[in-house]
Amino acid sequence: MFQKILIANRGEIAVRIMRTLREMGIRTVAVYSDADRAAAHVRWADEAFHLGPAPSRESYLRIDRILEAACAHGAEAIHPGYGFLSENAEFAAACESAGFVFIGPPADSIRKMGSKTAARELAIAAGVPVVPGMRDGAKSPAEAGVFARTCGYPVLLKAVAGGGGKGMRRVDRDEDLEGAFRDASSEAGRAFGDASVYIEKLIENPRHIEIQLLGDKHGHMIHLGERECSIQRRHQKILEECPSPLLASKPEMRQKMGEAAIRAARAAGYYNAGTVEFLVERNENFYFLEMNTRLQVEHPVTELVTGLDLVRWQVEIAAGEKLTIAQEDLAWQGAAIECRVYAEDPDNQFFPSAGKITGLHEPAGPGVRLDSGIYDGWNVPLEYDPMLAKLAVWAGTRNHAIARMRRAIEEYHVAGVQTNLSLFADLVSDEAFVSGDLHTGFLEEFFQRRKAYAADADIEAVAALAAHAARPLTRIENGPAAAPASRWKAAGRDGLLR
Amino acid sequence: MFQKILIANRGEIAVRIMRTLREMGIRTVAVYSDADRAAAHVRWADEAFHLGPAPSRESYLRIDRILEAACAHGAEAIHPGYGFLSENAEFAAACESAGFVFIGPPADSIRKMGSKTAARELAIAAGVPVVPGMRDGAKSPAEAGVFARTCGYPVLLKAVAGGGGKGMRRVDRDEDLEGAFRDASSEAGRAFGDASVYIEKLIENPRHIEIQLLGDKHGHMIHLGERECSIQRRHQKILEECPSPLLASKPEMRQKMGEAAIRAARAAGYYNAGTVEFLVERNENFYFLEMNTRLQVEHPVTELVTGLDLVRWQVEIAAGEKLTIAQEDLAWQGAAIECRVYAEDPDNQFFPSAGKITGLHEPAGPGVRLDSGIYDGWNVPLEYDPMLAKLAVWAGTRNHAIARMRRAIEEYHVAGVQTNLSLFADLVSDEAFVSGDLHTGFLEEFFQRRKAYAADADIEAVAALAAHAARPLTRIENGPAAAPASRWKAAGRDGLLR
Amino acid sequence: MSFNVQIDGRETTLDVRENGAGREFRLGSGEWRRAQVLEVEPGVFSILLDGRSYEARVENAQDGAGVTIGGRRMRVELQDPRRANRQSAGRRTDGPLQVAAPMPGKIVRFLVARGDEVVAGQGLVVIEAMKMQNELKAARPGLVAAIPVREGETVSAGAVLVVIE
Amino acid sequence: MSFNVQIDGRETTLDVRENGAGREFRLGSGEWRRAQVLEVEPGVFSILLDGRSYEARVENAQDGAGVTIGGRRMRVELQDPRRANRQSAGRRTDGPLQVAAPMPGKIVRFLVARGDEVVAGQGLVVIEAMKMQNELKAARPGLVAAIPVREGETVSAGAVLVVIE
């Protein structure tokens, strides 16, 4: 087993990886930018290496500096975390050719899965369903019409050269197809200089469900079940759960998706931890979306429900150990939910909110797991992802887990920066969320009906009292600059002594 | 189900109970003494009632005031926690006759199990093994000899009227019995005015293993397996685990002990949660010690391994619900360990250490559960038990759980009061502890061989640097009273900008 | 003492008075009531009101306090009515509207040009901060009078990006 | 600057000096080395030394600092040698030994009486605090010269309970 591992990442995921490495008796090397000298992952590492200035491309994205750090500290392996260089095939290859074990899949698998179109071809070849669509552009509205009638409306017209919604049209009926085709084609032509348009089945309000895989270098691969990630804002997951409310009662569907995911991964020569994402229709058809060739942000919900430590297995597998779990050994116990706590202002279009953490109260107690990268007094830097922590809970049932999450959110408080905790408080109290009928458009609908989390009639009186109590005493002109004190504080203590 | 429950307790257990009640949607009523107005359990309760002055007998032990509180707040049930009134049969009876549901066993069961001798008789009648001993005094050394030879040496002579070690003699050989009998008898006569001496088998270095029970009011009772509680200081448990390293590989012994515990509890007409404690010999014979008719401090390790929320079940059962778990539904997954974090000074004979918490960093991350009753800024009062928090971990195996506990202890820091965390750091690194060969004398032996938890050669240099950096700058005479600052702080930042 | 209070935009008054035994308060035209307020941590208040226990966390922001109670966050403005009159006179809502960067970031692109007519809610500029692109919108309709910064520029919090007249 | 240092009772010296590029230190007769020390939270220092990262938490107590690094707690005394000489003259270890209450509590019982000879490690008095009974022991042998308090009495921290000569 390795003696020392470098973690080419920062924030909560660097801390989370370190925790397992420390438990394995492996020394940890942190890397940091100028903005992160005082960061939690540097404080808690055994060793630390300064990469460069704050911007990622001058620090966390510099392959040369990271290899230099691994060399200087005598690390034997490198864990990339998620984000940054984690899905960079060149980095994985550079690690290996410099003599460091890359804790992840082979560079070639990353490459194969890194291109969306290549991954799609690979999935098709492996017999994994993909969203039905034409491989190439349609030569005419008539050819598009044949395909649309075959796969069924609604369909989506897309520019072959496209991106950013240009040349994209939703078509619900056969009679609208021709006009839409001409519009899309001419728009695509203007935008990309290529008027080719192809057609894809439109999946309406799908669920986003993904399968966690674990495979060793000796050819053994298992799936650890699914995660439901349908709660998304701007295509960004913010709440994930295991099991999916849809699959919890459908073991045969889980098995089918698990087997499909394994087929796709095997086709790419995959090993280590990875995730295959699917879109799932209401009729329970599922379609390969992409593969994430790394540890996912939301891996804790799988850990809570399976009892496995994914990071430990990543390291064991990277070290060449055998994955000693058979598919039939796996059991999914209870239910887990994770909320991604971001520094962003829910009252201001969820704008990122950097700054100094001036107060922090973290939830704890039964069934609560917090993976955090912040501390009281830490300055959340501007340069990186605004995720502060992941709050996960486990309970025997999904309903109990939801209640536990609500309780944990109530306990959680971050002062100094705004967070999206109040959004989660309202979300987990939402009836439709509790019913488990989720889809990727869920959050947008939720914002329309969102109700502030219930409170009693006196809450406004209490808020006014607190604001009043927090006012600093009026300073006496020219007097000593006393620390602000509260009148009520004394009053409260008087009350206490009565 | 109840709408509102009063928690007749304080500290971490009051907070822990509140967490479950909040998850159940039940309003919580805290009670508090003068010393606890700012305590965590008051801050986090939905409602609060002031009981009286700080001493327990004027506050937390006042049955009348607690019933008054329940009445004033319209609580329907009362949870006693552990300690204080939790094993007071009179309190249980008073709750019920005042119309409040007591969340615990019937008063009569508490009474029956409250007397050690009565509980022993009850266990014998139920066919549960007790430490072999004579029921009455031996009339002569000869009679004592007959018994001693039957049960086997070593034996213990004890004064029938005794206590505090007076009139107690260990006898290892038949030839020593007569002399020891006369000595013990005359000492007992002088000490208690009653020279009667009886004889009991001496259990050498037993394990302390207890069985958790859960039974409903409809006659269904199950055991939730065991907890190993052999790590004790002054007969006080400080570290507990589930499963017991002894029983982990002996399901038939667990079943036997579980069945014996159920028999004893049934004999007392027991329902709700309760624990039967056993002494276990090296030859795996086990003997009934006593029954704790309440929630135990160490219940989290059982929760972690079974996935059940014991407090939730206590409330369900008290509300008359059926316990819907069959014995065969239970599964014990992985391993859990709990450390009781006390405010006490390990450098000063573990003397209690009260005062203000001036800094707090709590462990978190995978597999860590913290049940705490303190916060940064809280004044740990003198009047109550010095337990600050319970740190529990879960992992797939005992070895992983031990490594995780070590990691969690490293993350945990309490400033302002001394704690026993450093003792636990050394203990979980002890080879004999890791081997799992535990007994109630373990800790005393450990203190003899205790080695400070390993650190590298530079740790002293770092400690000296930190102490140097923490020195306030020398003040300029008559200058402004500046806040203490550190020279190194600036130096560190310079270094950062280089 | 009497205060004008705005709680999440709703206006009311808070009166606070001494009483032989302690402090009393009244919200709006309600009853006089007693509460016990204790600052248990800096900015954290444990409040007992009619036997109920609340924990309120107060953060002072530019425009009043943010108060969080049980996961619910409220914006509370509290003003001595005498000062309030003076201040509100200075807080006018007509005149040019300056759209400022809410935090430091990089200007990705402008969605409008000088001289454009904009409607309320229309996107004006995209700013990137903390790896996320965020669109600033027009709070009210008007004419884009000035764009003092350029695309690609890094701006600090409060920098004026667009002026609407 | 040079300091006398005691770390868990072991004596050594700490030298600290400025160098063009930063700060250097030397422990005992070792090499001069560079370290980066940053106070990340009040009393919490992140220290980088030869590429290794340490987190040291410092609490000031009466007799030096308690420094905790990775769960290991050390007692560190740091003294300017000039002042140290003056102080150690006043810190004598012979003369009467006053056994004081380490914290407020109630005297449960005395295990010795005035005039008793005691040996080092012998129990002197049992004091109850925080629901636990604790025995105070003699640090060295001697004669019990005085017992200034009575059984059942509540004493505050620092109260002298037994004097040994």
Overall pLDDT score of chain C: 82
Instruction: Please estimate the helix content of chain C.
Output: under 10%
What portion of residues of chain A is helical?
25-40%
Choose one word for the global shape of chain A: globular
CATH topology title of the largest domain in chain A: D-amino Acid Aminotransferase, Chain A, domain 1
Low-pLDDT stretches of chain A: 473-498
Provide an overview of this structure.
The complex is a heterotetramer, with two copies of chain A (498 residues) and two copies of chain C (165 residues). By secondary structure, chain A is α+β, with helices and mostly antiparallel strands. Chain A folds into four domains: 4-103, Rossmann fold; 132-201, Dna Ligase, domain 1 (2-Layer Sandwich); 207-435, D-amino Acid Aminotransferase, Chain A, domain 1, CATH 3.30.470.20; 452-493, no CATH class. Chain A is 35% helix and 23% strand. The longest helix of chain A has 19 residues, at 174-192. Chain A is globular. The relative contact order of chain A is 0.10. Chain C has 165 residues and is mainly β. Chain C has two domains: 2-79, Glycoprotein, Type 4 Pilin (2-Layer Sandwich), CATH 3.30.700; 83-164, RNA polymerase II/Efflux pump adaptor protein, barrel-sandwich hybrid domain (OB fold (Dihydrolipoamide Acetyltransferase, E2P), Beta Barrel), CATH 2.40.50.100. Helices cover 6% and strands 59% of the residues of chain C. The chains are: A alpha+beta (498), C mainly beta (165). The A-D interface holds A 30, 37-38, 42-49, 72-73, 375-378 and D 38, 40-42, 46, 48, 51-53, 55.
Short description:
The complex is a heterotetramer, with 2 copies of chain A (498 residues) and 2 copies of chain C (165 residues). Chain A is an alpha+beta fold and 498 residues long.
Question: What is the topology?
Answer:
The complex is a heterotetramer, with two copies of chain A (498 residues) and two copies of chain C (165 residues).
Chain A: E1 4-7, H1 11-23, E2 27-33, H2 40-43, E3 47-52, H3 63-73, E4 77-79, H4 89-97, E5 101-102, H5 107-114, H6 116-125, H7 141-151, E6 155-159, E7 169-171, H8 174-192, E8 197-201, E9 207-215, E10 221-233, E11 236-242, H9 251-267, E12 272-280, E13 286-292, H10 299-306, H11 310-318, E14 335-342, E15 344-345, E16 351-352, E17 355-356, E18 359-361, E19 368-372, E20 379-380, E21 387-395, H12 398-411, E22 413-415, H13 421-427, H14 431-435, H15 442-449, H16 459-470, H17 487-497
Parallel strand pairs in A: 1-2, 1-4, 2-3, 4-5
Antiparallel strand pairs in A: 6-7, 6-8, 9-10, 9-12, 10-11, 11-14, 12-13, 14-21, 15-16, 17-20, 18-22, 19-21
Helix pairs in contact in A: 4-5, 7-8, 12-13
Chain C: E1 2-7, E2 10-19, E3 22-27, E4 33-41, E5 44-49, E6 52-61, E7 64-69, E8 72-79, H1 81-90, E9 97-100, E10 105-110, E11 117-118, E12 123-129, E13 132-137, E14 142-146, E15 154-155, E16 160-164
Antiparallel strand pairs in C: 1-2, 1-8, 2-3, 3-4, 4-5, 5-6, 6-7, 7-8, 9-16, 10-12, 10-15, 11-14, 12-13, 14-16
